[in-house]
Amino acid sequence: MHLYLHIPFCKQACHYCDFHFSTQLKSKTEMVAAICQEIALQQDYLPTRTLETIYFGGGTPSILTQNELEQIIETIHRFFKVEPGAEITLEANPDDLTSEKLRALKPFVNRLSIGLQSFYEPYLRFMNRAHNAQESEQCVKLAQDHGFDNLTIDLIYGMSQAHLGMVPTVSDEQLWQQDLDKAMALGTPHISAYNLTIEPQTALGNWLKKGKIKPVDEELSARHFEQMVRSLTQAGYEQYEISNFAKNGQYARHNSSYWKRRPYLGIGPSAHSFNGISRQYNVSNNTLYLRGIQAVKPVFELEELSVFDQVNDYILTSLRTIWGCDLAVIWDIGKVDLLEEQKAYVEKFLEKNWVEVRNNVLYLTEKGKLFADRIASDLFLV
């Protein structure tokens, strides 16, 4: 079983981020207590109380003090059995990762997910990141010096100098390659990279609406994606999910559980839970969340998943991975023969060399990875 904890606080708002967070930290102590209380309230949600992974996401979990983190970890151990060797991940911002902070994290966390996003200073300023380019490199080396060998770094591609109104001195591909080269030189066993998206409720979305910035260039993003796959593969990384690359099989165990349709419990404002047949969505409002927990009436939306919902969720997530979409799983969920049900689409994708079928498993080809969302949506049952 798997546990996700959403820490809904950040020092400042990144211009691209549409996750739930607050920059008002005055309720942090109260929030930690509520998170601990929700753990107790939801202890019976999962089929068993044995945890294989714990993931602190956000927001910015590295904003927690050592005492706050210890309080949450102790509560987890009170109500769940944490397996020996469980993966315990904490998302961290580079500017938080001082020697003092790393020493404080070490007793509780065995994997760090560091949100670098870029090593190029103008891009970091454009995104309103709290750290600078020098800290991007230094924090990883510092974490490694403190014994954090199991760590991952996040990058964003699809960035263009046109977004900043800059007169290009080098190509956007060269800047992206510089980021990739610096990331690979750090020797981390895992790299995640995501295409820049401009969501309506973000600062970038507002600027786009007002015509202050240009939309993301999809052709540039595709070139960056292919460049990334080529560079990381040559460096010995395995693309085990469209946005995730690992060396020596050091996959993100927690995220892999989502893609493999494993039950998980989400704790904290805006956190999601999944038990196989339904999803729960905690309220994305800190005040309402706190009131609900304090009244022992958690505020969440419950979605009962139809058979088609369950199949479509599995198609969407599994197709993106090296494990592929197991057609036997779809049959077990809904007694549906996907190849027959969506025969026209499957034949079209086979003809385009976007997918292949091996041992009753549907896989994306290298070419098909560029069209993953489109392929999945076309295969959805309706």
Compile the SSE list and pairings:
Elements: E1 2-7, H1 28-41, E2 50-58, H2 66-79, E3 81-92, H3 99-105, E4 111-117, H4 121-127, H5 133-145, E5 151-157, H6 172-185, E6 190-195, H7 203-209, H8 218-234, E7 238-241, E8 244-246, H9 253-259, E9 264-267, E10 272-274, E11 278-282, H10 286-294, E12 300-304, H11 307-318, E13 325-326, H12 327-334, H13 338-341, H14 343-351, E14 355-358, E15 361-364, H15 372-379
Parallel strand pairs: 1-2, 1-9, 2-3, 3-4, 4-5, 5-6
Antiparallel strand pairs: 6-8, 7-8, 10-11, 11-12, 13-15, 14-15
Helix pairs in contact: 1-2, 1-10, 6-8
Structure in words:
- The chain is of the alpha/beta class.
- The chain is 39% helix and 21% strand.
- The protein is built from 15 helices and 15 strands.
- The chain has helices at 28-41, 66-79, 99-105, 121-127, 133-145, 172-185, 203-209, 218-234, 253-259, 286-294, 307-318, 327-334, 338-341, 343-351, 372-379; strands at 2-7, 50-58, 81-92, 111-117, 151-157, 190-195, 238-241, 244-246, 264-267, 272-274, 278-282, 300-304, 325-326, 355-358, 361-364.
- The strands form 3 sheets. Strands 7-8-6-5-4-3-2-1-9 form a 9-stranded mixed β-sheet, sandwiched between helices. Strands 10-11-12 form a 3-stranded antiparallel β-sheet, with no helix packed on it.
- Helix 6 runs parallel beside helix 8 (218-234).
- The chain is globular, with a radius of gyration of 21 Å.
- The mean pLDDT is 95.
